[in-house]
């Protein structure tokens, strides 16, 4: 097994097994160590491309889809979901909110987490689906 077979094996890992770049690099380093140290046959420059996976875009739902989801929820769940969607809160942050965290005059709320405290703005209600109208 020489350099051509090593390149073929690394291509197999990337194309057929769909391994990550780090897995492919680990295999290359292990084979290079084997060839250089024990077989005393340096591989040299193999000239191959590392595996790359295309970035996955997140799935986003439209405002109309959010409105349809809110329409079938009860009041408690609609409030929670509206806070999650409208202010970008995490579920755990939303479930930890208390009445005193809401400041209606400033249309803001205070979010408490384990190590810090930050503020989220509540925007004016221009969509009836989000306000419970």
UniProtKB/TrEMBL annotation:
Instruction: List keywords of the entry alphabetically.
Output: DNA integration, DNA recombination, DNA-binding
Q: Which domain of life is it from?
A: Bacteria
A single Pfam family it belongs to is: Phage_int_SAM_4
Q: Which residues form the Tyr recombinase domain?
A: 56-133
Spell out the SUPFAM superfamilies in the cross-references.
Answer: DNA breaking-rejoining enzymes
Q: What is this protein called?
A: Phage integrase N-terminal SAM-like domain-containing protein
């Amino acid at each position: 097994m020489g350099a051509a077979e090593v390149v073929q094996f690394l291509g197999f890992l990337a194309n057929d097994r769909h391994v990550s770049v780090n897995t492919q690099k680990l295999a290359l380093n292990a084979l290079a160590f084997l060839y250089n140290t024990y077989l005393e046959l340096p591989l040299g420059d193999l000239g191959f491309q590392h595996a790359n996976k295309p970035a996955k875009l997140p799935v986003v739902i439209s405002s109309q889809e959010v409105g349809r989801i809110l329409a079938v929820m009860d009041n408690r769940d609609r409030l929670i979901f509206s806070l999650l969607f409208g202010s970008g809160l995490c579920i755990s942050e939303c479930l930890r909110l208390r009445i005193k965290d809401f400041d209606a005059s400033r249309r803001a709320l205070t979010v408490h987490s384990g190590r810090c405290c930050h503020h989220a703005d509540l925007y004016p209600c221009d969509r009836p689906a989000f306000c419970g109208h």
